[in-house]
Amino acid sequence: MMTELLIIVQLLFTIVIGLYFINALKIQKSNKVVVNKECEKEMESLIKLRSIELTLPLTEKSRPADFKEIIGQEKGIKALEAAICGPNPQHVIIYGPAGVGKTAAARLVLEKAKKKEISPFGADSKIIEIDATTIRFDDRGIADPLIGSVHDPIYQGAGALGIAGIPQPKQGAVTKAHGGILFIDEIGELHPIEMNKLLKVLEDRKVFLDSSYFNREDSNIPEYIREVFVNGFPADFRLIGATTRSPEDIPDALRSRCVEVFFKGLDSDEVETIARNAIAKIEMNIEEEAIKLVGEYCSNGREAVNLIQLSGGIAINEERNTIKIQDINWVIENGRYTKRLYKRILDKPQIGYVNGIGVYGSDLGMLLEIEASAIRTTSKGKLVITGVVEQEEIKNRTGNIVRKSSVRCSIENVLTVIEKKYSIDISKYNIHINFPGGMPVDGPSAGISIAVALLSAIKEIPVNNKVAMTGEISLSGKVKPVGGISVKIKAAKKAGAEIVIIPIDNYDEVHSQLDGVRVIAISSLDEAIEIAFINNNKEDVDILTAKSL
Description:
The chain is of the alpha/beta class. It contains 18 helices and 24 strands.
C-alpha cells in the first residue's frame, strides 16, 4: 500500500514538474514572440527614419574635398604633409583659430599619405575622430572611449562571460585608430588624467588594461582575454591634435612628442574666396559689393559659409537667384557680426604721422597708426604715451602672470638714438606719442616707425603717406629684424601703401613682390628717413642725416 502511494506521489510530482516546464517553455516562446514583434516594429520604424533625408546643409556641401579648397593655409598644409606623408610619420599638433580648415586638413592628409608608396599607412588605414570636450571617463574604469576599459563581472550587463567571473576588455579610440590616424579636436581641453593616459599610449604604442578579476593562472579565462591582459591592445597610430589654444597652454610632455604646425587666421580676401566657393556650391549669384562685405565682417570660413547660407535663404524666399548687399547687411545686423580692424592710409602726408605695420591674432597683419608731437618748452620736457595698454594679466597653466608692454621700451630707445645720433636735446621738448584707434601694440617692431614719426614732428617734415614700415631700432640707429614680415607686407598693400620698408635681415623672407608694392630693405634709421620724408624738404633731410657721418 505504501509503495503504491509513493508511486502515485512521484507520478503527481513528475506531472507537476512537466507542466511547469511546459508552461515555462510556453512563456519563453510567448516572450520570444513578443520580443520579436517589438524588434520588428522598431526595425520598421528605424528603416522608415533612415528613408527620410534632408538636403545637405551648406556647411557640409562646402567641406573641402581637396587641399586646394582649404584657403590660406598653404604653409601649414605643407608642414602637415611633411610630418604625415613620409616614411616615418610624426605625431602632430595643429594650432589655429576656429573655422580655418584644421579638421579638413587632418582628414585629407591621410588620404594623400595612403597614395604614397613610401608611406606605412595602408589602403585600410582610417582616421578616428574624437572631440576632447566630450570625452568622459568612469573612475571605476568601466567606461573610457579614448583609451579603452574593462567591464568587470560585478557590473550590470556583464553578460555570459561576467556570470562566469571573466572580466571583459573593451577597445578605445586609440586601438580603433591602430594603423591610421587618431584625430583629437580641441586637444587642449583634454582632462589631465586622460592626457596622462594618452601620453603613456603614445610611448608604448599599446594599451595595457588591468582588472582584479584577471588571473593568468585561471584556466577558465579564454585565450583572447588572456592575450589582451598580458600583451595589451595594439595602438600604433599617429596622433593629430587640433586646438585653438596657444602652444604655452598645451602640456610640455605632449608638445615634446609632436611636430607643431600652425594654421593662420584668414584675411578678408581669403574669406571672400571661401564665400565665392560656397555661392558656387548652392548655384546662386551674389553682388560684388555683398561679397566684399562678407570679407569685412567674417573672420573664418565657417562664419562666411553661415552668412552665405542665411543670406541665400532670404533671396530664395523672395524668389531671387542673386544675393544682394541688403541681404548680407540684414544678416550682419541680426547676427551682431563685428567688423574687422582694417585701416587705410591717409589721403595726404602729415607731419609726425607714420604708417607702422604689425601683427595681431593668429598671424594676421594690420596697419598701425603712429602719431608724434614735439613742442619746445623752456622747462624740462615731458613724455606722454597714449593708446597702448601699459600692462596686461595673462592666464597660463601655472597661474596668472603680468606682462608689461614693450612699447615704452621702444620709445625710450628711440629717444636715446635721436639724442645720440642727431644731437637733439630731447629734454627741451614736450613729446606725445599716440597709437590711435585702440589697436593692440606690443613688441619692438614699431621702433623704426616711432623714430621716423618723432623726427618728423621735431623737424616739421611731413612723412610720405604711401610708405609703411616695420623694424626694431638699436641704440646705434641700426634696424634689427622682426617677425611676421610676409603678413605685414600684405597688410600694408591692402591698406593702400605703395612702399614698404623692412629690415635688411628680413629680406630673405620676402618670397614674392605684391603687385603695386615696392619692398625696400634697410639697415639704418638714416635710410628710413631718406625714403619716408617728403622730397621737397630734402635739404632738411640732408642736414639731419649728415650728423651721423
